[in-house]
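As a point of orientation, let us examine one representative protein, giving the amino acid sequence and backbone structure tokens.
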Amino acid sequence: MRYPEFLKKHDTIAHVAPSFGVTGEPYTTQYKEARRKFEELGYTIQEAESLYLMGKAASNTAEARASEWMKAYLDENVDFVHSVAGGELMMEILPLIDFHTLIHAKPKWFMGYSDNTYMTFLLNTICDTASLYGNCVENFGMEKWHKSLKESYQIMQGKRFEQKSYPKFAINDVSHIEGMELADYDLTEKNVIYTSTGEDMTLHGRLIGGCMDCLVTLVGTPYDQVEEFKERYSEDGVLFYMEAYDYSPVGIVRTLLQMKEAGWFDGCNGILFGRRKQRDPFFGLTYEEALHSVLDDLNTPYVYEMDFGHVPPAWTLISGSVATVEVKNRKASITYELK
């Protein structure tokens, strides 16, 4: 696994929009505040031309988005590539990405989550290059950074390789209320971590994954190189991490079944599930029942309601690293090894 150089003082960060741009509120206000903060910290910001655009569910054409992403990644004057937002249609750029060139290019951190899975995941599995699955640029547009954002920035700098679960999480996004675009998280819910056995658990392996809504669309395509990745890193074993945006419990069942039938989970060391956004049962089927119904016959241990994904506060995962996850007394911690 190739690990890029971490952020250093006076580095140049490229802000790209390979899916959504940052038009409309609260996104424009959040992005501009985030940019101001990073400039204040001493970084030079390079913006993609599509950044403030939005139409037909994407910031620009697939050709423009792919070109801007490749240009930023290959630019020797750019040190770090950071997606401004998630979105819906990043998969459109994949046929236009030159993975052969990326495999031989100097490794560079790409950071984002949700729809950015398409590149955080494929950099790992196709290019053997680590990536950061975590906050997009706009998420840093908080007047006073929450602890999770401070830790995320420390990871970007290579100053932190361990995270612990946070006491509470937010289910309401108050930033969509006019005048509260830069507000803190509305932390109302007690954070409780669960394991498949109900007991304390330790899992270890090479970390790959992302947003399930995106991952499932790669199954069986030319971009599905999970089996080859598992073979290359058989000594470490794979530890999947997954989280969902749109899925109800039945969506979770369908997605996990497809991955299971494709062999993704064969021989894996375990699965980590991020905190779910859709929290209601579907026709009586709960989220917990959905996981158990698909996974229990694999005898693969799993942990759910973890601190990553669409429900803040969230960890920034060093995707591609070797991770150790410990769950004890309904709390979790993760450590990363860059090997």
